[in-house]
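Quick one: structure tokens for this chain, please?
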Amino acid sequence: MQYDGLLQSILDASEIGLVLVDEAGQVQLWNAWMARASGIAVAQAFGQPIGSLFGGALSVRVEQAIADAIERGMSSILSSTQNASLLPLAGEMAAGGAGDEIKQIVVFKPICQGSLCQCLIQVTDVTNAESREHTLRQQARTME
């Protein structure tokens, strides 16, 4: 679904990825951040099964978190630090330039209206924070 006016501007100005997946697993929202990070245009993503957008590279843990949100109304959070690959995202936003994998924290939230639940996926790029943390740990070990 394309949103009009102010709401679309807000969604596209967001500094995190926003995806809404319906009960059939199809993308109903794909903001500009996701388009840049995935290389998949908003119009191309809309109405497509989320798994097909990533050519089968969607993490099993991501698929389970989406199912849990839709079927059980359960929220969850995953980190690429603990789960090597979540959403295969890379691009100009990642530290080091285009093509580098984006380290991410992904939150899955059920959005329910009556008995109908969808899954809101929020993707935060933590590449730079993770890189800084790694550097600080190395410096601490060196100082010991």
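Helices lie at 5-13, 32-38, 42-45, 50-53, 60-72, 127-143.
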